[in-house]
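Q: What would this chain look like folded?
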Amino acid sequence: MSVMAAPKDPRPCSIADALALVGEKYSLLVLREACLGNGRFDQLVRNIGAPRDILATRLRRLVDAGILTKRVYSERPQRFEYRPTEAGLELEPVLVTLMAWGDRHLHRDDRPMVIEHACGEELVPVVTCRACGDPVRHEDLTARPQVPGWTVAGPAAA
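A: My prediction, written as structure tokens:
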């Protein structure tokens, strides 16, 4: 019986690359707090519950990646505040969509927070197609791998 060997490298994937950056525990929670305007270290420690050393590592990584900026808000002692960059703000729809999923599947009767849109109504995020405006549904999607040697099912046969 022949056993197919696993590929040397996993599928090239923007999801995997994004998760390598923001998929670690606490990273998206740091971004949540920064988007809420709670970017000071002590606020982050309190609101996220992360150990200080791990939080400092996540903050450094998010700043280095251009997702957060770091600015001094106190000289003596020197203290910093973290704010989302344009790239960080582009992740906010991911956060509210993830929150909506959690509300539907984990917190049906006890939602921890509601996001209100500028129109005054509660935000219920919907992913739509930029070209036609229709809501995105699984059955309407077709994946087309762009990396040579890869198919939807995995690595192409050699």
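The mean pLDDT is 93.
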